[in-house]
Each structure stands twice: as structure tokens, then as C-alpha cells.
Amino acid sequence: MASVVAILDVKGKTLIQRCYRDDLGEDDTLTYLERFMPLILDMEEEGQPVPPCFSSQGINYMHIRHSNLYLLALSRRNSNAAEIVIFLHSFVQVLIGYFKTLEEESIRDNFVIIYELMDEMLDFGYPQTTEIKMLLEFITQESNQLKAQIRPPKEITNAVSWRPEGIRYKKNEVFLDVVESVNILVNASGDVVRSEILGVVKMRCYLSGMPELRLGLNDKAMFESIGRGGKAVEMEDVQFHHCVRLSRFETNRTISFIPPDGDFDLMTYRLSTIVKPLIWVEAEIERHSETRVVYMVKVIAQYKRKSTANNVEIFVPVAPDADTPRFKQTSKGKVTYAPDRCGFVWTIKQLAGRQELIMRAQFGLPSVRNEEDAQKLRAPISVKYEISYFTVSGIQVRYLKVVEKSGYQALPWVRYITQNGDDYSLRTAHDKGSPPIRQTT
């Protein structure tokens, strides 16, 4: 439980605060809030990592940072810090859902609604309603609709607070997307130094009534419990939407839930496994003189022929002072110079599996005199892509059942997508004449 929740700017000035308990004292609360930023700065100056939870003079500080804002909760008691930090993240998502962007200006322009949201989301410091779809039912941004309610909406008091009753659709459908993002780092020798798969199961439900959905995956723990063979996936760090019945999952690994209406993320997972780069890129750098450098970039699609990567973007860094770019026309795609990013981008709309492409780029340089300048030419190459109907982990949806008391027939749709993660880097640029890089398999 939190005694105080506040939003501060990047300098530590309080923009909004709400006191839920009087154990801190009204006058002392401002003092504790003012101490927060100096405590953060002291830790940074000493080279210490700033933890999301710390204590000072008997006060517990729990915080997260979003953009140029700090969301801070204070407590004197021995509170559940993890629960409060999760609430602050949920609070951020609710505010973004209301105002599209969360920044200092949107806080100042909408402080009335924010205070109403804080009162509904926390009761005496305990988290209550964090589902934005439910909050939108009775807290709106239209001033003429901000009316006092005689009684709380029934969704708030329901056991299923995330889904209102009485939903009706002419056509009952449910869409499920398994989206996997690949983070990978390849060193100059062509070896995979680090790789991981971050997965999320996204759903869009347009179902009438109060349906119960049951989802089965080729989960390794479930396969072992029933003695079934076949390809299974061992997922780590699994997190579910709060609609999932965790007791059933822990008992028989069945994902059972009553879904919210519309879009939501059902679950996230991670796989820390070594994977080969699905799109391999290497650049050969040839210096023709001190003032001219040529790149030969080669891309290889290392996935099955039946799959196709869409909207591929290959970013190759160049020296900050490079100029006069010249690109040789490629058989596929388009190359553009991006001086603001110190590099050039090779865009390929569709890249079929096992396909190989080559392009050449030439730049002028004021001079290339030392190894430090040469290292700038060999900066990591980054890649963006999306491959539909393909999963790198091998995860599969075994079944998706919809059960509703009226017995209507629902149409389930399942799709798989693999894409690059936030960190897909290949340090595979090398000077011509140096030892060739070793491609992973």
C-alpha cells in the first residue's frame, strides 16, 4: 500500500500528488518529495545504480521513470514494493490510453481527470481498478459528462471486472497473434555473442456474452506431465494478463480465461537460446584512397524458401564526415543516404528465403588516417524485418476453444509473426583483405 503517489518532472518538482494515508504528515510529505531528486543525484554521482525501490530516514521510495517524468510512491510501512511498482507501470499505461502521450504538458492540461483516475485506481493506498476499458466507462474527458455516479458501475463490483456484461456481436470472432522479436549480437568474427527471443501473444476478441477461452500451446512442461513426445518449447519469464486463471495453469498448464473485449496482450514470454541470424548482412569496406571508400553489402536470407520477410531495412553506418554518396542500382530494393543517422539504408520490400542480394555504395571522405577513424567505418549493422507465418522458437497453438453458455459458434484465427527486436546488431563490416568472417549455421 502507498501513502502518497506523485508525479514529478525531471528536476524533481511535484506536478501532481495525492495523499491516501496520513502516516507521513501533511507538512512532512512535501519535504519527503523534495528529498527524492537529491537522493537520486547522490547515487548517480557515486556511480551507483539507481534501484526502483530504496529507503531513506524511515521512508520507502518506489519509483519509475517515463520520458521526462518520475512517478513516485511513498510509504512508511513495510509495503509490497513489487505491487506498487507494477501499479505505477499500470498507471502510466492508463494515462497514455487517455492522453495518447504522457509528458509534462499533458499532465498540466488534464490534472482534473488525473486526480479522478487516482481516486478510482487507489483506495486508501491499495490498488483497485487498473483496467482502462472499465475506467473509460465512467471517467471521460468530456466536461459535460463528468457527472457524479450514484452507484459504481457493475463492472467494478463484478468478479470479472475487466469485461462488462451484455456484449453482443452479430459475428463472433477471435484473433490470436503470436509475435516473436529476436534480439541478437554478432561479433566481428561472425559468432553469435548474445541472442534471445521475446514473445507476446496478442488477442482481439469480438465475442458475445461471457465466453471462456482455453488455449493450448506446445509447452515443454505440459508435454512432460502427460508423457507426450514431439517438439516442445521451454518458455521462461512467462507473464499473463490478469484475466488468466493461474491456478489452472499451475495445475495442468492449461491457459483458461474470460477475455476482455477488444485488444489485449494475453501473455509474454522469453527464450534465452542461441539462434542464428535470420537475415545475415556483411559489409566489405575497400579504401581506394584516403578520400574515397567503397562498401559492398551482402544480405542472405537464412530461413526457409517458403517464407518471406517484409519491409526489410538494413542500416549500414558510415563515418560522420562522409559525403558525396553514390549507390549502384541493385536488383532489388532502394538505397537512401541518411546523414542525420550517419549511414545509409537499404530497403527491401520483400526478401524471399535463401535469397542473396548484393549492393555497392561509394562515399567521399576528408581523410582516413588512423585506426580510430577506421573503427567508425566498421560500426555495427542493424536490421529491421517482419516474417509472417513463421516462428523462430517453434511455438505452436495446439488448440483455441471458445465455450459460452448460449452455445454459439466462434471463428478463431491464428497468425504467427517473427520480427527484429530492439537490438539486432551485426558487427560484420570488415576491411577488404582482412580474414573473412565466419557465418553462423
From TrEMBL:
GO terms for biological process: intracellular protein transport; vesicle-mediated transport. Residues 171-427 form the MHD domain. Keywords: Membrane, Protein transport, Transport. It is found in: Endomembrane system. It holds the Pfam family Clat_adaptor_s. SUPFAM superfamilies: Second domain of Mu2 adaptin subunit (ap50) of ap2 adaptor, SNARE-like. InterPro entries: Adaptor_comp_med_subunit, AP2_Mu_C_sf, AP_mu_sigma_su, Clathrin_mu, Clathrin_mu_CS, Longin-like_dom_sf, MHD. GO terms for cellular component: clathrin adaptor complex; endomembrane system. Belongs to the adaptor complexes medium subunit family. This is Mu homology domain-containing protein. It comes from Mycena albidolilacea.
